[in-house]
Amino acid sequence: MFSNIPLSLLFAAIVAAGAPKCPSHVFQTQCPYPPLPYTVEPSPGKGLGVFAAHSLGTGSVIMRETPIITIKPPNHTPGTGYPMSKISQLVHAEYNKLSKEEQQDILSLTYSVLSNDVAKYGKNIDILGLIFRNNAYDTGSEIGLFPRIARINHSCRPNAAYYWNAKLNKRMVYATRDIEEGEEIFVSFISLLTTREERQKKLSRYGFICTCPACSQDSEHSHRSDKTRTRINQEIQAFSSQMNLTAPMHPSDIKKARKSARSSLKLAKLVQQEGLADYYAQTYRITAISHARIGDWQQATVWANEGYKRRVMEDAESPFTLEMYELTRRFIENWEAEMKGTAGT
Q1: How many CB atoms lie within 10 A of CB 119?
Q2: Any transmembrane segments, and where (predicted)?
């Protein structure tokens, strides 16, 4: 089918056909849509939320925001969290440099007071420190506060994701699936590969009980979802030692590799069924490499390109994106060689 097509054209066609049309949109200064693709409105049971101002395609950038405050995290004992007194001191120093309007933007954000906060600090609880604790994100070597992004609520089955773009000094939020006009935009605050009970426990520090579709299921479906997410987590960990391109040679190893390839397909489908878009790229990479190890270059190419499509949404220049681009190129090369009867390695 592809034997008479030059490799360069084949590669370009496969990658271009599946890749989002706008990996460079991150750097555009003009936008074909209204200035803001979102609105901030009341969200039932959640205070304020962020909603799509118009339909958004998968990969669309929803927000680009520079941190209004950044601090270098203080020293702390692992497992105990950062000392609130030191956090508050650092945050106040930066807060005092802001305009009145910027300060008001920060003070309007929500926060939660935990029982141990009251026991430890009593009447001396610092509200600004609590706001920062509840709403800040890592920015590489620092921690930053993003007032607009902080308005996005949590879901255990989100429709958006985010990442830190050091080159732009901005946190980026993008759609992980098509989002309809008026639909609320959600991201995840925590790891999603745990049970509902474990997720609720982690989310309690934010001061709310999650009522997202994944957490509002009846007991039967919730139990099934818990088993699926736990299984996904276990399988991702199990595959970590197999993520190399060394082809097995011994018959027993070949048999195991073929079994792993079949398992990787099931893993990718499980992640899709649970709507865990945060883990698509990771599992697609697993599936691609698992098939490359048994010389199934067609499947390896398809899944590597799917992984590339996901990574390029995050950051077109990240090491993860470049890796998936290179894997796709290599697998196409081997696929073409196989079809010509001179399989590459």
Answers
A1: 8
A2: none
Q: Which of 122, 88, 128, 91 is nearest to 108 (CA)?
A: 128
- For all residues of the chain together, what is the average pLDDT? 89
Please list, in sequence order, all residues whose beta carbon lies within 8 angstroms of the beta carbon of residue 146, skipping any fewer than 6 positions away.
Answer: 65, 66, 67, 68, 135, 137, 171
Q: Residue 77 above 70 pLDDT?
A: no
Tell me how long the chain is.
345
CA distance 217 to 233: 21
**What is the Cα–Cα distance from 233 to 150, expressed in whole angstroms?**
27
Task: State pTM to two decimals.
Answer: 0.84
Per-residue pLDDT band at 123 (split at 50, 70, 90): low
Least confident stretch, 15-29, 207-221, 249-263: 15-29
* CB neighbour list of residue 198: distance below 8 Å, 6 or more residues apart: none
pLDDT band at 112 (very low <50, low <70, confident <90, very high): confident
45 burial class (0-12, 13-18, 19+ CB within 10 angstroms)?
A: exposed
Q: Tokens 């990996």 — which residue?
A: 23
How large is the greatest C-alpha to C-alpha distance in the chain, in angstroms?
77
Q: Nearest to residue 13, comparing CAs of 316, 337, 336, 339?
A: 336
Task: Tell me what percent of the chain is helix, strand and coil, each rounded to the nearest 5.
Answer: 50, 15, 35
* DSSP class per residue in 168-222: TTEEEEEESS-B-TTPBPEE-SS--SS-HHHHHHHHGGGT----STTTSS-HHHH
For 289, other C-beta atoms within 10 Å of its C-beta total: 23
d(CA 288, CA 301): 7
Comparison of pLDDT for 60 and 339, the residue scoring more? 60
The pair of three-digit structure tokens given for residue 113, joined into one six-digit string: 């007071």
Burial 22-36, CB ≥16 within 10 A → b, else e: bbebbeeeeeeeeee
Residue-wise pLDDT tens digits, 14-45: 555 554 444 444 444 454 545 799 999 999 98
